[in-house]
Each structure stands twice: as structure tokens, then as C-alpha cells.
Specification:
By secondary structure, the protein is α/β, with parallel strands linked by helices. Helix content is 37%, strand content 16%. The structure holds ligand 9D3. The site of ligand 9D3 has 16 residues, from strand 5.
Length: 248
């Protein structure tokens, strides 16, 4: 996977890429990240990248010219890969969107700053618009890192673990069951007996039930889309009747 990131703050992108799972994927030749400073593509003497909006109203808007110049200089005109604008107005990024985007060999990420980019960038350069959720950030750089992180770990071999991405809580549609490791007792707090039993069928059943219980308590919205077995449904029904005697 190749990413080209276009930003006014290239220094925000590199350090995270260079120290993380992403660095491992890069070492394995599975990931290539090219960061481009939009300001370097402004042709005026002061490298102006933003100006006040036509029509007034305050704030600043990212200019067309540096953005088009940057993207087209690097990727050609028109670019052969998707050009994704990170913007609060985009479709919301989910695991499903990450899986969809991981199918491309090459993505361009355009990070907005200020109030946003000139509408003509959206209309004539951008092919997709993505938001990472309903909260207000200062720009698209952290969202771009989040996209790269979520997408890269889906590339086979990127995690080192061949099926590392399969057991994801958001891939199974449920939240994860609780995890424990040694010691078996810490400050008097014991690890659930069943996990020490060596009975793998019992352990699998307990984990499934914990995942269902946790999802019901914290993210009941997820249960509507999660693939559930008949046994899962019976357990959830039982929970609804007597939430304190779930056996979970
Ligand atoms: C003051 C302007 N805001 C009105 C509420 C609009 C606005 C424009 C630009 C708010 C934030 C930003 C900067 N954010 C992003 O570029 C951004 C973002 C975000 O803020 N939240 C979630 N996902 C994303 S992706 C890019």
C-alpha cells in the first residue's frame, strides 16, 4: 500500500509513521508513505496557502492552486488513485470503510486545515471525503494517521501475525471479552476460574457470553448488525429476563 499525504504540517505525520506498527509494515515493504508539504507548491513569493473567504464571514480557506499543484505534481492529472479529503463533512470512517479502502494499492490523503478547502478542490480533485467522527479537531492530520493505521493493519502480513486482523472486535461485530494474564491473583483480585481450567470449550463459551454481555451493556447498537447464533440469542434473551443471573 502506498499513501501520499498532502498537508500544511508535514512534521505531524512522520514521527508517528516512523515508530509504530506502521514502521514494521514499512520495513517489510508492505507500506510506503510519502508526505508532501502543500506550502512548497504555492508559487507566490510568500507561499500563501490560505485566504479569507469570498463573501466574508471570517476564518480562512485553503486555496485551490497550492493544493492542485501539489497533488497533480506528485500524482499526475487526473490522479489514478482515490484522492481522499479528510473533513468533518465526510462519510464517517468505520472498520467497513477501512476494509474497503485497504483494497486499493494507492491512496492520496488530503488534510484540510482552517475552515476548510475551496469548494473547487472538492468538486474537481477530491474523489472521496471522510470524517473520523462527530467531534471538532483542528485539522485532518490526525484523521489521516488514523486512516493509515487502520488500513495498514489490514494488509496481510503487516501485523506479523497472519490472522491478527481476524479476531477484531469490530470485525466480529461484538466488543471483546475481558483479557487476563499472569499472575492468577493480584492484590486479592482473581482471574476467573474458567480461564485456568484448561477446558477450551468452556473457555470459548464464557468468552462468547462475556462479549455478548459487554456489547449489550455498552454498545447495544452493535447487536443489531452482529451475526448471532441461536445460542447467542437465547443467552441474550435470558439476560434481558434476569440480568443478574446470566451465568456470564
Ligand atoms: C470553525 C469551523 N468549523 C465549524 C464547526 C468547521 C470545521 C472545519 C474544519 C471544524 C473542524 C475542522 C478541522 N477538522 C478537520 O479537518 C477534520 C475532522 C474533524 O474535525 N473531526 C472529525 N474528522 C475530521 S477529518 C478532518
Amino acid at each position: 500500500m502506498r499513501f501520499d499525504v498532502f498537508t500544511l504540517f508535514p512534521g505531524l505525520i512522520e514521527p508517528y509513521i516512523n515508530e509504530s506498527i506502521l514502521e514494521r509494515a514499512r520495513m517489510r515493504g508492505l507500506l510506503e508513505v510519502h508526505v508532501h508539504d502543500i506550502r512548497a507548491y504555492a508559487t507566490d513569493r510568500h507561499h500563501v496557502t490560505d485566504e479569507p473567504p469570498y463573501g466574508g464571514g471570517g476564518g480562512m480557506v485553503m486555496k485551490c492552486e497550492p493544493v492542485f499543484n501539489a497533488v497533480e505534481s506528485v500524482l499526475g492529472a487526473p490522479p489514478a488513485c482515490p484522492v481522499i479529503l479528510l473533513t468533518p463533512q465526510g462519510r464517517v470512517f468505520t472498520q467497513q470503510v477501512a476494509m474497503e479502502l485497504s483494497q486499493y494499492p494507492h491512496l492520496a490523503l488530503l488534510c484540510g486545515r482552517y475552515e476548510g478547502v475551496d469548494e473547487r478542490v472538492r468538486e474537481h480533485l477530491v474523489t472521496d471525503e471522510i470524517s473520523i467522527g462527530d467531534y471538532v479537531l483542528t485539522g485532518g492530520e490526525l484523521p489521516a494517521l488514523i486512516l493509515m493505521d487502520a488500513i495498514t493493519r489490514l494488509i496481510p502480513g503487516a501485523l506479523g501475525d497472519p490472522d491478527g486482523a481476524i479476531d477484531d472486535s469490530h470485525a466480529s461485530g461484538l466488543l471483546e471479552y475481558p483479557h487476563y494474564t499472569r499472575p492468577a491473583e493480584f492484590r486479592g483480585w482473581k482471574v476467573p476460574e474458567v480461564l485456568l481450567s484448561g477446558n477450551h470449550a468452556e473457555i470459548a463459551r464464557w468468552r462468547r457470553r462475556q462479549a455478548l454481555l459487554r456489547t449489550l451493556q455498552r454498545r447495544p447498537d452493535l447487536l443489531e448488525k452482529a451475526p448471532l447464533s441461536e445460542e447467542d440469542r437465547k443467552f441474550l434473551e435470558q439476560l434481558r429476563k434476569s440480568p443478574d443471573e446470566s451465568g456470564a
